[in-house]
Amino acid sequence: MSFFSRFSGWLTWLLTALVLCSAGLYNGFPLVTSDSGTYLDSALRLVVPEDRPITYGLFVRLTSLKFSLWLVIFAQALLLAWLLLRYVQLLVPRLGHNRAVQIGLVALTTWLTGVSWFCSQLMPDIFTAAGVLALGLLLIGLALGRWERVALLLTTLLSALMHSSNLLTFTLVVAGFGVAAGLTGVFRRGVVQFRQWLLVTAVVLSGWLVLPALHAALGGGFAISRASTAFLMARLVESGVMDEFLSRNCDPADQYRLCAYRDKLPNDAIAFMWDGNSPLYQTGGVLANQQEYGQIIRRVLTSPRYYPYLISETIQAGLRQLTHIGHGDGLTPFRENTNPFWKVGEFTHYELKEYMSSMQNRGQLEFKTLNERTYGGQLAALAVLAALLFTGLRRYVAPAAVLAVVVLGLGVVANAFVTGGLANVLDRLQSRVAWVVPFVAMLLLVQYAPLAARQLLARVRASARL
């Protein structure tokens, strides 16, 4: 490879990364949510939070160099740029080495979707999409270099460890892919090597041990999250299952502290988890209720009478989550006397003026136009994929492209049912990964639209001759 070719590749990667963090540049500072302060605190003190992994805190500590929080979102953008450019190169071979068009496709994705708004956040949400994209590259059956496979496996593991929901989401993706590949003969025909799928699956499953081991090493106990029972309880409260349970189990012979609040349960999981007046905090908080909530959850999960409720609620929550792809959720001002304000000031005090003067903290961010594009882009993407995969054009689409759609689609659906079924139905939790659908649809459109046009023109000419 010539020096010029290598230089143009590095420059393309850098420019693509700048495009992906353009929302942060536009805002004037990396974006924050109410949870950002907790992650910054774990980065500062190296203490495992009660309700989330410490992994993103370690990532912030490492990539910021304890110098600037801008370096964190730029590191996220570099990782994502690498993944997206590899998709462009592998799924749109007709472009060759046209660097300008490669950057242009990522820039168009950035304009059409909210990817930059997640890449520019001091939050681990972008790693859900990064992990799904890495899984796709590993599983679509294209030849990858040895070191590239190693990098993708490490990216998958890192992304899985960033958020507890990612572990389950990625596990469902590799499991679903394995079942689909086995039933359709993908393994038998050698389109995807069974050993490669097995290796990827082993890496994903290892996260279930690596994360609690990391927490134990840092004094947080051998657990994915110490707040897992509280989150599950909050979901049972929102679904109404807990009302049914308490109505049957709050007699004097079988008392729980939660029984005293039987008629005061909040209507939604967010209020149960975060409102200081909720039963969770009135009875001592997350750790004080671990044992009782664990007992209640085990009784619910082992009682068939609740299965119809649980199945129904999980299905409808997952389907609802699939439609929640709006942007701006949680990106409100966080000025004085908020956790993000305190932690930004503590982490990089000289950046606090930038933080306070950002568009977010002046209340000047507006997402109506972006959300209109997002919904329109999602519908157009689904139409493009349906036309390419379920019509006569299907025979022209490369197997790798079909598999990429399958893996990314599994990631989007699995994320919806995991977050909707076990946590909350929120725009932020689904829009963080839903943008990969328009991205892959755009790549397939660029690769196969000329072929479709030629086929249509040939049919028109044939009809004219008749």
Automatic annotation (TrEMBL):
Superkingdom of this protein's organism: Bacteria
Residue stretches spanning the membrane: 67-88, 100-120, 126-145, 166-187, 199-225, 375-394, 400-426, 433-453
Keywords, in A-Z order: Membrane, Transmembrane, Transmembrane helix
Protein known as: Uncharacterized protein
Organism (species): Hymenobacter taeanensis
